């Protein structure tokens, strides 16, 4: 370590000189698909809507671990909860306050590097869109499930045609995007539905920063426990080791 500078000037700068600019990162993938619940944020939105209902939490965990097909639990959970519009609005605010450390910076760096970022989730679209706006991800790049309400704001149902409420749905959504946008692709996610979509991308990064799911950890191409780890695989930056 160098000795203390008597002048008080930063060691990397001289008076009157602009600081050296760090080279911009390079995206390793043109397309980056991100799960939301327990990946981009620290919560599971459906469990927040359920207010801690243990039956809903049990169904969520079984689906996330691949123990039961998603379509067997998706509608059941919503019928138990019957979320009102006000509850969805409150969930949107919870999402905004629950971002994983480093997630916003990583997405901003991906954008700066020219990557196209998509959110792919079985979460509720109306709750996800404000988060996407915060992260400068356009609505067309948000793939989620629409719910409907009656004139009084009470739950009226969900889009049963959505691929994302069924097994293999993320795989189909990602393949559709890739058919329209050329370039290599990576997916980051924590659950069984993400693992199902691994074959649709060039690199599947299993994420265990919130919950470590054994099936995902054992079968992902790489496994990350922080957004810093994820960033290392998605971006090439000066001084950052390669992802090989």
Which secondary structure elements does this structure contain, and how are they paired or packed?
Elements: E1 26-27, E2 31-34, H1 45-49, H2 54-64, H3 70-81, H4 85-96, H5 103-112, E3 116-124, H6 125-134, E4 142-145, E5 147-149, E6 155-158, H7 169-180, E7 185-189, H8 192-196, E8 203-207, H9 214-219, E9 222-224, H10 227-234, E10 235-236
Parallel strand pairs: 2-3, 2-7, 3-4, 7-8, 8-9
Antiparallel strand pairs: 1-10, 5-6
Descriptive notes:
The chain is α/β, with parallel strands linked by helices. It has one domain (26-236): Rossmann fold. Helix content is 37%, strand content 17%. It has ten helices and ten strands. Strands 4-3-2-7-8-9 form a six-stranded parallel beta sheet, sandwiched between helices. A two-stranded antiparallel ribbon has the order 1-10. Strand 8, helix 9 and strand 9 (222-224) form a beta-alpha-beta unit. Helix 2 (54-64) runs antiparallel to helix 3 (70-81) and helix 4 (85-96) packs parallel to helix 6 (125-134). The longest helix has 12 residues, at 70-81. The chain is globular and about 55 Å long. It starts with 25 loop residues before the first strand and ends in an 8-residue tail after the last strand. Residues 1-11 have low confidence and may be disordered.
């Amino acid at each position: 370590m160098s000795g203390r500078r008597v002048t008080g000037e930063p060691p990397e700068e001289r008076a009157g000189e602009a600081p050296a600019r760090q080279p911009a990162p390079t995206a390793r993938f043109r397309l980056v698909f991100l799960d939301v619940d327990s990946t981009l944020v620290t919560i599971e939105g459906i469990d927040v809507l359920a207010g801690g209902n243990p039956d809903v939490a049990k169904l969520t965990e079984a689906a996330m671990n691949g123990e039961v097909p998603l379509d067997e639990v998706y509608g059941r959970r919503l019928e138990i909860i019957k979320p009102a519009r006000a509850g969805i609005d409150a969930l949107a605010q919870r999402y905004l306050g629950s971002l994983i450390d480093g997630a916003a910076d990583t997405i901003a760096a991906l954008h700066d590097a020219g990557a196209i970022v998509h959110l792919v989730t079985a979460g509720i679209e109306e709750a996800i869109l404000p988060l996407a706006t915060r992260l400068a991800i356009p609505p067309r790049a948000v793939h989620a499930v629409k719910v409907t309400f009656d004139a009084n704001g009470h739950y009226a149902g969900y889009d049963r045609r959505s691929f994302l409420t069924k097994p293999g749905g993320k795989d189909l959504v990602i393949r559709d995007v890739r058919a329209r946008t050329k370039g290599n692709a990576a997916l980051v996610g924590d659950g069984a539905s993400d693992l199902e979509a691994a074959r649709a991308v060039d690199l599947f990064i299993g994420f265990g920063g919130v919950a470590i799911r054994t099936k995902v950890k054992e079968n992902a191409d790489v496994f990350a426990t922080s957004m810093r780890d994820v960033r290392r695989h998605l971006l090439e930056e000066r001084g950052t080791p390669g992802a090989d």
